[in-house]
Design a protein that fits this description.
By secondary structure, this protein is α/β, with parallel strands linked by helices. The protein contains 27 helices and 21 strands.
Length: about 775
């Protein structure tokens, strides 16, 4: 086919949550029954319209497919799964007469319903975004359901905007899926490729019929060596997939994007496929090399889309270097375009919203809207020559120089302290000795606890806002927080939990709280980023050398411990997670920054011990998240990430019980690293996967304490006591009860008190029932 011209500058996707979290508020209002479906439709259509108008204003074309339709009501993987009819049999009742699932059904898949847990959730490659995992079987009832895609396309067309629909590509969709419970042993979702390709072809035909000129198919699986499928099989699947889709007669032009890293040999596969454009991540990936003559000839008829603007971080960056990187590709393909390296869903909307940021720091930054402007600038430079954008390049380079010399970016005292560390600072005495030293904690078999946070009420959020505005003074705020801590402690005692937490009412976020108390960080006012569904985080900005001016948690933990005779956990966020859930400086290796954070936390651990706290949890839910997609880079990452945790905890006394927590961490993938953390107790997400993790535990011979979660806190479902007991019994079958803890999957901050109290009551009841059964033998 003769392809329409590809836009000179584009992006792979845009934040969909809204500048003021409009999508979150609309969806949660609908779930709560405060608005009806018609109002939800009106609000989300208004958000999409505002997004398109903003992108046109920033320089993307109205009529050249430069604006991607990357909207999703909950998750892009779930949207694509529903578009191809990939609905698990256990949710078959959600299908309409035509086999489609409406928006209410989509929310059930995402959030579960009485008696049926939702789809499993896990991290999207090496980002902090969570996607819903499709469940497939050999007889999955695939079928094309393009109605929502077509409706959004025609909605934009009615406003005079020619958008580019975006779908997760077939290879990535299947590579990320898991076998359904009813699938036979040895079944692999990628085996279904031949069955799903005609469905994609039908979706493409329907979009072409509606007037779409280009469709974007995202294939980040081609950049990963961390999936269950080996890279060679993924490349072979991509070859088959795009030979078939490219051969379709009725289709739009195909733009296959491969973000999140380099794709190596897969570039040759895409080059020779009958597609019209290829997108490369040239921030984390490499410039094309090693292509054979056939692949080079094939590229001459395609558009190469150079992802040279970082879609994952908020630094203004080296615009001149990005221009040179893109310019090096001229002549390799038939035409060249500029893009972001990934979707911009990983960064906040607009730096202009941040009126409280230090202006000097702000001059070093670029949020989504500023990234779009950078794309437009670089595209103009390619078209008109470097001189046309010389001023913009010089301004960006000047910002880099200013940043490098700014006070606080490099602090000699911090660097001297790190240089003085020895191997002894990274280890504790042997685990067996610690178990003996901790025996006087006198905990029961299968001790029950929570992960840390309790529900954040509207009153707490208002109190923080009033404190910030000056409407509430420090004394009044402290009184309110102490009252909430006492309420949470008494509630846990009433429920019968064995190890208590203070509930973290003073914390707005498990990373931002520490960022506001550590030197080297800044926080934003409106820098929200979607984490999953309607949930958002506000990543802090780690811009300089990190140190701890004063204790951060000791006062609250000591107060809570004074209220109870039971043991109370001190709660800290670990160094890797603080990095993963912040926008981290890019001017030095992550390992160096992680050690700085680890050293600051080491001081906090020492002060908690001095205050009489015997159990300290250092959360590392993001340990798996930062694991590089390329295997060759993984050992070095695991070495420094484990080292940063051990630096933070290595000074703890043998009698102090150190816990850690990991969620969505695919335990089997990083088992050696988790063993290397050498925490006395590790809690881990396990409820949505129905305790699949315990098989890895059993096979690995993991011999420390462990708490596989029995309550999925990412859903409003209240699991029954029988359900929790069944999960716990599965765990006991694989892990000796003497080393097993009973806890939820994660913190309870996002849940309401009614569901939390009911669920924890069932958790405690199930633990007691299993204890009694074990006692009876």
């Amino acid at each position: 086919m003769t392809a329409p011209a590809f836009p000179a500058g584009t992006i792979l996707g845009y934040p969909r949550i809204g500048r003021r979290r409009e999508l979150k508020r609309a969806v949660e209002a609908y779930w709560a029954g405060r608005i009806d479906a018609a109002e939800l439709d009106r609000r989300t259509a208004e958000l999409r319209s505002a997004t398109r108008a903003r992108l046109v204003e920033l320089g993307l074309g109205r009529d050249d497919s430069a604006i991607p339709d990357s909207y999703a009501a909950y998750d892009q993987v779930l949207d694509t799964a529903l578009a191809v009819g990939a609905v698990p049999e256990r949710f078959a009742h959600l299908r309409g007469t035509d086999g489609s699932v409406d928006l209410d059904g989509e929310f059930v898949l995402a959030r579960g319903e009485a008696g049926e847990p939702p789809l499993e959730m896990t991290k999207w490659f090496d980002t902090n975004y969570h996607y819903l995992v499709p469940e497939l079987a050999q007889d999955s009832a695939f079928g094309a359901h393009p109605e929502r895609l077509v409706a959004r396309f025609t909605e934009a067309l009615a406003e005079g905007v020619l958008t580019r629909p975006v779908l997760v590509g077939p290879v990535t969709l299947l590579a990320l899926a898991k076998p359904a419970a009813e699938a036979p042993e040895g079944f692999r979702p990628l085996d279904e490729l031949e069955r799903v390709l005609p469905v994609y072809a039908e979706l493409l035909a329907r979009l072409a019929e509606a007037g779409a000129e280009w469709v974007q198919l995202d294939e980040p699986a081609l950049a990963s060596e961390s999936l269950d499928e080996p890279p060679a099989r993924l490349r072979e699947a991509a070859e088959r997939a795009y030979a078939a889709l490219g051969a379709a007669v009725h289709r739009p032009a195909l733009f296959v994007a491969a973000p999140y890293g380099g794709i190596g040999e897969a570039l040759g596969v895409l080059a020779e496929a009958p597609i019209e454009a290829i997108g490369l991540d040239l921030v984390r990936g490499e410039l094309p090399s090693g292509l054979d003559d056939g692949a080079r000839r094939a590229l001459a008829g395609k558009t190469l889309v150079a992802g040279v603007v970082d879609g994952r971080n908020i630094w203004r960056g080296d615009l001149a270097a990005a221009f040179e990187r893109a310019s090096a590709l001229e002549g390799l393909a038939g035409s060249l375009a500029i893009s972001t390296s990934t979707s911009l869903q990983h960064v906040p909307h607009d730096l202009a919203d941040e009126e409280r940021l230090d202006p000097r720091l702000a001059s070093w930054l670029a949020f989504a809207d500023q990234k779009v402007a950078q794309v437009a600038t670089l595209a103009r430079g390619l078209a008109e020559g470097r001189e046309a954008i010389a001023t913009e390049l010089e301004d960006a380079s000047a910002a880099l120089v200013d940043r490098a010399g700014a006070r606080g970016v490099r602090v000699p005292a911090v660097r001297d302290r790190l240089a003085a560390l020895s191997d002894a600072d990274f280890s504790r005495v042997a685990y067996g000795e610690r178990v003996a030293a901790q025996s006087d904690l006198a905990l029961p078999q299968l001790p029950t606890t929570t992960i840390g946070s309790f529900p954040q009420t509207g009153e707490l959020r208002r109190a923080r806002a009033e404190l910030a505005s000056g409407a509430l003074d420090e004394a009044g705020y402290r009184t309110l927080i102490e009252q909430e801590i006492e309420r949470v402690v008494r509630l846990q005692e009433e429920l019968g939990l064995d190890v208590l937490v203070h509930g973290e009412p003073e914390r707005n976020d498990m990373v931002q709280y520490f960022a506001e108390l550590l030197d080297g960080f800044a926080v934003t006012e409106h820098g929200w980023v979607q984490s999953y569904g309607s949930r958002c985080t506000r990543p802090s900005i780690l811009w300089g050398d990190v140190s701890r001016p004063a204790p951060m948690t000791v006062g609250w933990s000591a107060f809570a411990q004074s209220l109870t005779e039971r043991h109370l956990k001190g709660m800290l966020t670990g160094p890797v997670t603080i990095l993963a859930w912040s926008f981290v400086r890019d001017d030095q290796p992550l390992a160096e920054t992680a050690r700085q954070v680890g050293l600051a936390l080491r001081d906090e651990v020492a002060d908690l011990e001095a205050a009489g706290i015997r159990i300290i949890q250092v959360d590392e839910p993001a340990l798996r998240e930062l694991l590089p997609l390329r295997r060759a880079e993984q050992p070095a990452y695991l070495d420094w990430s484990v080292g940063a945790f051990r630096l933070a905890t290595g000074g703890a006394a043998p009698s102090t019980q150190v816990h850690t927590h990991l969620c969505y961490s695919e335990f089997g993938v990083v088992i050696d690293a988790i063993r290397g953390l050498d925490a006395d107790v590790t809690s881990i997400e396990a409820a949505r996967s129905r305790m699949e993790v315990v098989e890895d535990l059993g096979r690995s011979g993991f011999d420390h304490g462990v708490g596989p979660g029995v309550y999925d806190i990412h859903s409003p479902r209240v699991p029954g006591e029988d359900e929790v007991r069944e999960l716990l019994e599965r765990a006991v079958a694989e892990v000796p009860a003497a080393r097993l803890w009973v806890n939820p999957d994660c913190g309870l901050k996002t849940r309401g008190y009614e569901e939390t109290v009911a669920s924890l009551g069932h958790l405690v009841g199930a633990a007691r029932a299993v204890r009694e059964a074990l006692a009876r033998g």
